[in-house]
C-alpha cells in the first residue's frame, strides 16, 4: 500500500494535519491502533471538549524553548479554529478564563473533523498496530498489522503517555530516538498531587472539600479551585501547578484567596465575639477546613477570647499553608505529558525533523505543553495545521 503522507495517530493533531494535507491535494492515510478516532477529544472537558482558549499567549506553554510554539500558534490561531467550529454549526460557550467548550458534546468536534477528512478524501485505517518504521534513503515504510505502507512523508501524531488505558504509548518517542532525535525528559503533568501518610493524616478528613485557592511553586502561581482528595490535592489550581512542581518542591497555598482572614476575624470579633473561633473561621472557609486549621494552631474558646496575635497566626496559616507533595497520580490520570521530542531539532514552521527530511512530529509528542484550559488542543490544531501545509 502507498500514500504520499502517512500519519500515525488519529487524535486532534493527526486529524488536523490530515485535513490540511489532503486539502492541498496530497494522498493521505491516517492510521491508529484505536478502534475510533479522537478518543481523547471525546472524553475531554468532561465530555464537552474545551477546544481552545480565547487568550492564547506564549507564557501559557511550557517547553525548553518557549518560543518554538509561536510560529504555528500564530499561523493557525484560536480564531481560525473557532471559525471552523462556527462553520460546522457547533454552538459553544466561554466557561471561565477564556476557556471555550461545546454547548452540546465533544462528539460534535470529532464529527466535524471526520466530515472534513471525508470531504478532502483522507483514508482512515483504524484498529491497526504499527510494528515499526524504516527509511530507505528516499521513502519511509510503516510496517503494520495489515501490511507495509510506503510514504514520502511520515507524521508522528501519536500523543504522549497520559492515560495508557486509552491507548497512549511511548511510540512517538521511540521513533524519535530511532532517527537520532533527542527527547526532553517526560513526566506526567496537569495531574493531581499526592501526600505522604503523615500529611494525609491531617488532610484525609477534608476529602471532597473545595476552596478557591492561590497556589504557588517555582515562581508560578494559579488562582483557581482546589480540591482535597483521599490521596492529596486536585482541582484546576493543583493541575496547573503540577506542571511546575518537581520532586522535593513545596507548594504555598492561600486557602482563602479572595478574603483577608485577619481583618474579617477582627471585624467579626467586635460584632459577634461570642462564637467559637472554629465557627468564626467557618464563616470564611469551609467548616471541615476551619476545624482542621483551628485544631492545628491549638486555639480554643470563643472569638472574643483571641488577641490580635492569635488571629494573625490563624490568618497566616490560612493564607500561607505550605505543603510538600511526595508525588503525583502519574500517567494514569495525567491530562498531558510534559517534555517530549526536543524542539531544537524540529523546524518551527513545518514541524519537520531537521536531520530527516519527510519526518514530522506534531501535537503532544513534542516538547510543548499547554496550561489547562484549551491550550493543549490549540497546540494540537496549530502544529497539525502547520505540518499539513508542508508534508
Ligand atoms: P492524542 O493522544 O489525542 O492522539 C494520539 C493518537 O495516537 C491516539 O488516537 C492514539 O490511539 C494513537 N496512538 C498512540 N500510539 C499509537 C501507536 N503505537 N500506533 C497507532 N496509534 C497510536 N486538552 C485541552 O486543550 N482541553 C481539554 O478539555 C482537555 N481535556 C482532557 C481531558 C483528559 C481526561 C485528558 C487525558 C486530556 C485532556 N486534554 C485536554 C489534553 C488533550 O487531550 C491532548 O493534549 C490532545 O489530545 C493531544 O492531541 P494529540 O493528537 O497530540 O494526541
Structural class determined from secondary elements: alpha+beta
Q: What value does the average pLDDT take?
A: 97
- Total beta-strand segments: 21
Task: Give me the Rg, rounded.
Answer: 24 Å
CATH fourth-tier homologous superfamily of the largest domain: FAD/NAD(P)-binding domain
Low-confidence stretches: none
Number of helices: 13
CATH topology of the largest domain: FAD/NAD(P)-binding domain
How helix-rich are the residues, as a percent range?
Answer: 25-40%
Strand content: 25-35%
Report the biggest beta sheet as strand number plus sense, adding barrel if it closes.
7 strands, mixed
CATH architectural designation of the largest domain: 3-Layer(bba) Sandwich
Bound molecules: dihydroflavine-adenine dinucleotide
Distance between the termini: 18 Å
What is the CATH class designation of the largest domain? Alpha Beta
Overall shape: it is elongated
Number of domains: 2
InterPro entries: BaiN-like (IPR004792), BaiN-like_dom_sf (IPR023166), FAD/NAD-bd_sf (IPR036188), RsdA/BaiN/AoA(So)-like_dom (IPR055178), RsdA/BaiN/AoA(So)_Rossmann (IPR057661)
Protein name: Aminoacetone oxidase family FAD-binding enzyme
Keywords: FAD, Flavoprotein
Cofactor: FAD
Amino acid at each position: 500500500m502507498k500514500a504520499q503522507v502517512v500519519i500515525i495517530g488519529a487524535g486532534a493533531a493527526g486529524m488536523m494535519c490530515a485535513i490540511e494535507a489532503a486539502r492541498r491535494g496530497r494522498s493521505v492515510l491516517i492510521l491508529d491502533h484505536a478502534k475510533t478516532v479522537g478518543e481523547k477529544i471525546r472524553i475531554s472537558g468532561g465530555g464537552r471538549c474545551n477546544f481552545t482558549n480565547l487568550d492564547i499567549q506564549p507564557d501559557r506553554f511550557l517547553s525548553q524553548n518557549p518560543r518554538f510554539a509561536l510560529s504555528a500558534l500564530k499561523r493557525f490561531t484560536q480564531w481560525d479554529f473557532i471559525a471552523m467550529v462556527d462553520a460546522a454549526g457547533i454552538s459553544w460557550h466561554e466557561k471561565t478564563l477564556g476557556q471555550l467548550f461545546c454547548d452540546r458534546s465533544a462528539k460534535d468536534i470529532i464529527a466535524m473533523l471526520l466530515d472534513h477528512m471525508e470531504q478532502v478524501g483522507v483514508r482512515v485505517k483504524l484498529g491497526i498496530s504499527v510494528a515499526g518504521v524504516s527509511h530507505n534513503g528516499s521513502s519511509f515504510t510503516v510496517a503494520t498489522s495489515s501490511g507495509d505502507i510506503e510514504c514520502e512523508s511520515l507524521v508522528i501524531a501519536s500523543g504522549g503517555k497520559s492515560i495508557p488505558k486509552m491507548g497512549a504509548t511511548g511510540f512517538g518517542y521511540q521513533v524519535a530516538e530511532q532517527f537520532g532525535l533527542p527527547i526532553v525528559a517526560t513526566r506526567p503533568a496537569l495531574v493531581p498531587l499526592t501526600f505522604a501518610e503523615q500529611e494525609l493524616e491531617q488532610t484525609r478528613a477534608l476529602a471532597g472539600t473545595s476552596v478557591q485557592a492561590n497556589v504557588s511553586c517555582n515562581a508560578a502561581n494559579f488562582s483557581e479551585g482546589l480540591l482535597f482528595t483521599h490521596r492529596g490535592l486536585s482541582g484546576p489550581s493543583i493541575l496547573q501547578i503540577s506542571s511546575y512542581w518537581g520532586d522535593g518542591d513545596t507548594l504555598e497555598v492561600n486557602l482563602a484567596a479572595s478574603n483577608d482572614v485577619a481583618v474579617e476575624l477582627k471585624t467579626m470579633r467586635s460584632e459577634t465575639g461570642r462564637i467559637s473561633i472554629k465557627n468564626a473561621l467557618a464563616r470564611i472557609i469551609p467548616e471541615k477546613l476551619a476545624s482542621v486549621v483551628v485544631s492545628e494552631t491549638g486555639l480554643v474558646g470563643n472569638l472574643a477570647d483571641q488577641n490580635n496575635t492569635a488571629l494573625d497566626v490563624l490568618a497566616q496559616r490560612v493564607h500561607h499553608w505550605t505543603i510538600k507533595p511526595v508525588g503525583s497520580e502519574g500517567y494514569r490520570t495525567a491530562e498531558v505529558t510534559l517534555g517530549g521530542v526536543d524542539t531544537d531539532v524540529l523546524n518551527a514552521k513545518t514541524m519537520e525533523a531537521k536531520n530527516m527530511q519527510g519526518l514530522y512530529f506534531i501535537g503532544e509528542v513534542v516538547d510543548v505543553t499547554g496550561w489547562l484550559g484549551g491550550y493543549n488542543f490549540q497546540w494540537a490544531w496549530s502544529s497539525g495545521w502547520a505540518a499539513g501545509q508542508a508534508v
